[in-house]
């Protein structure tokens, strides 16, 4: 069922009162406990209700499915079942790093700690584990070790680890489009990389050795009941069901056709309404049509308790809801603040929640804290862990003009907490929201904007319309196309008929004509005094420059945003040299989403340099200076 069909059903269904959302910290893991509202809880007390622990998938899948995972937790709570969703140790907001040893045992230990925490906090007698993809494999392994799990709900489960690793390698291969995407090796003797997330060798070997369909790998019955929603007839679910059934587990199987539409970019994916209702009804012993539903927009009541502090290696973090709209952020502070340090506001990219692609938001915040610089990584309204979660399909538009007000509200909140200066850091659409917020807010004293794709966005244009046009209007950088045309191998494939070049030629011609029309319009506007897109865009930076707000625009050398830059500021952004407080940095060591470790290091070095240059951050100055040496291939305009 699509999101659109699902929301039509929700609009007429009985809706439960708002649930409570309680922040938790256990074993170095961040979690959210979704508790039923008082009326629901009283109605269910005599039913021997389940408590449910939700087990994340791995890496980018965890980012893509976050919105749905939160909705499932709300759906479970609306039907009297407290649900705990959390990040494994070394992932998401939790403590630790992906390079820590023995990740698979650590993740299983995290699930065990979550089960113990759920029992202690809620008093539930029966516990169910619900896992998605790799989380389903981990949930099954954890259930065997814990030994007191009553039910397992496995969504698109990984049954044979070798097959899953093959899928991950294929995903990594298809994501390496430009030279910037190939900055990091796909696999070495120490690790394999999957869209910016690394699995180190011990984890790879442990996953590869898993095959839940083999009778000898299930030592005992993992749970009394098991529900398997299978995304493919080839995923091994039947073998798992047979192996579990032979141990006395009551197994139910059903298809999961919604998975492919669910595992997509956060701003584009469809929530699997039918699958989530199936899981909830199966656990509640009720028909999916009889369930209470949270509604199209989930507005959880965040329990006003003191947020637990995470004391990590060189940082202290606490979760905050703030503002009238209940915006969410994680405030990351340093044990010993640096003199003169501003607070850095990290803005969402697209509809991905605050951890960022390949955990970039978390890594950046903790990197800054170790230098004495506080930060707030935020969720804009309607996404992530903000109090209100938009569920309807296409409910979130990353270029919505209203989002700048959320950024402004976050900057104002930081000022109210005693931080006198606020600097923005945003990537792609986060850079767009940050740019426009900086133009309107007196609280924002600087900005580092990475791979800005658009300076102005047509009102009413939805991101989905742009994505649907991509097969006809490709979004690779012009430099990528030109480099492709100069490779002999490309022409050999064209002559063989293995590939075609006409679409590339048409796309380059379209870009050239667009640039000519924009410049002609600007020239005409200069003569007549009329307003033009070029004038509006340049006024954005002129306004910041006039206020003395330092802005660094950072681009990867192969980034599609360079075309937009050239359209409004000339080739290489030469017009920007007119502004005293604007600096342009272009590097071949930066990919678009900063998924490459090399790219992250380069951008963090630039951020260090920016803070030292404009805010006189003094702590660890020598170390910061060494990191901030421009990398080979870095081009910068004069400040």
TrEMBL record:
Task: Tell whether Transcription is among the UniProt keywords.
Answer: no
PROSITE patterns, alphabetized? PROKAR_LIPOPROTEIN
The alphabetized UniProt keywords are:
Hydrolase
Q: Which GO terms describe its molecular function?
A: hydrolase activity
Q: Where is the Serine aminopeptidase S33 domain?
A: 71-180
Q: Which InterPro entries match?
A: AB_hydrolase_Est10, AB_hydrolase_fold, Hydrolase_4
Does the UniProt entry include the keyword Hydrolase?
yes
Gene3D superfamilies the UniProt entry points to:
alpha/beta hydrolase (3.40.50.1820)
PANTHER family for this protein? ESTERASE ESTD
This chain belongs to which protein, by name? Alpha/beta hydrolase
Native species? Cupriavidus basilensis
